[in-house]
Amino acid sequence: MEKTSILHLITATKNVSPFDVNMAFDAGFDNVVPYAHVELKEVAGLVQDAIFSRTPSGIKREGLFIGGRDIDLAMDMLEAARNAMFPPFEVSVLADPSGAFTTAAAMMAKVEQHLGKKFGGNLSGRKVSIFGATGPVAGAAAVISAKSGADVELVAHRSVPDMQAKAASYNSRYGTDIGYSDGTSDRLKKDILHDADIVLCAAAAGVRVLSLEQMAGSPNLKIVADVNAVPPSGVEGLDVKADGTPITGCNALGIGALVIGNVKYSTQHNLLKKLLGSDKKLYLDFLAAFEEARAIVSQNIK
Q1: Per the domain annotation, does 1 fall within a domain?
Q2: CB 3.0-4.6 Å disulfide test: which of 90, 141, 150, 153 passes with 104?
């Protein structure tokens, strides 16, 4: 008799995400078990309790999901989980804190798609400026962009030293060369937009970050993507359903939050299914999410 499938959902935060719980059930898991307020030092013990309570054939019906809000902590937890296991006692692991990995992956896959269709080439050598850069989606998008050969800068909204420290942390951890810039005034934002090829807006829901006046006249601006679906949009004039649609008032193409969200949903769904469907044990992070999102976008090219 086949054992019931179980997803062990670990987070350092007070609550697990209902979004992730729903996604796990929809991907085919019979049971989803949450573990909240988990510290990094506790991950190995939880993982070993999960793998040693079943036979090697039984743990093929298990998976581990790492949530939370901090992308670095999620990566540390993924590594701690990997180090706690050994053949044949292994389960596949997916890290996606606050959905940031799959959201960033979806955004970058759509940017890459429209960049290639309209302008030729890929992210390599493009200047990517990221607004709302303090959050996990921005961080994951920055690393994905940098790993893809882009010239990436995090734009400071309040504190330039804080953004400098964040860029340095990413560079040290992920071997990237992410920069930072001062975007604390409308004039400075306009200067940044003047030089950017691609602008990513990952600010908090309902926060307007960029105006049409700031974007107007930017000679190099090709694509603007916004993950905020709550009015007002993060970018003035960018509709949530825009899918490579020209933004009236500037020369750029827009990618809206609902279009990004559709790819994000499919990406997370597919990765969760892989936790149960692969004979090889998988350790899935934001780079794996990007490859999955790319595959989804390539199958649905308009």
Answers
A1: no
A2: 141
Q: Name beta bridge partners: 92.
A: 63
7, 103, 117, 296, 298 from 301: Cα distances, Å? 32, 19, 10, 9, 5
* pLDDT tens for each residue of 245-280: 999 888 899 999 999 999 999 999 999 999 988 888
Coil, strand or helix at 224: strand
From its phi and psi, is residue 48 left (phi > 0), alpha (psi between -120 and 50) or beta?
A: alpha
Global confidence as pTM = 0.95
Judgement on whether residues 239 and 170 belong to the same structural domain of the protein: yes
**Residue 226 lies inside a defined structural domain of this protein:** yes
The CA radius of gyration of the chain, in Å to the nearest whole number, is: 20
3-state SS, one letter per residue, for 35-51: ECCCCHHHHHHHHHHHH
The number of distinct structural domains making up the chain is 2
- Provide the domain limits for residue 251: 104-260
Q: Which two tokens stand for residue 240?
A: 């949530």
Within a domain: residue 242?
yes
Edge-to-edge strand list for the sheet holding 62-66: 31-35, 6-10, 62-66, 92-95, 283-284
Could you tell me which residues come within 8 angstroms of residue 300 by beta carbon, excluding any fewer than 6 positions away?
A: none
Tell me the CA end-to-end span of the chain in Å, nearest whole number.
45
User: Based on the number of CB atoms within 10 Å of its own CB, is 132 exposed (0-12), middle (13-18) or buried (19 or more)?
Assistant: buried
Sheet holding 151-156, edge to edge: 179-182, 151-156, 127-131, 198-201, 223-226, 253-255, 243-246
Q: Both 79 and 163 in a single domain?
A: no
- Written as six digits, the tokens of 209 are 């970050």
The tokens for 222 are 């090709």
Q: Is it the case that residue 1 has pLDDT exceeding 70?
A: no
Kindly report, residue by residue over 40-87, the tens digit of the pLDDT.
Answer: 999 999 999 999 998 888 888 999 999 999 999 999 999 999 999 999
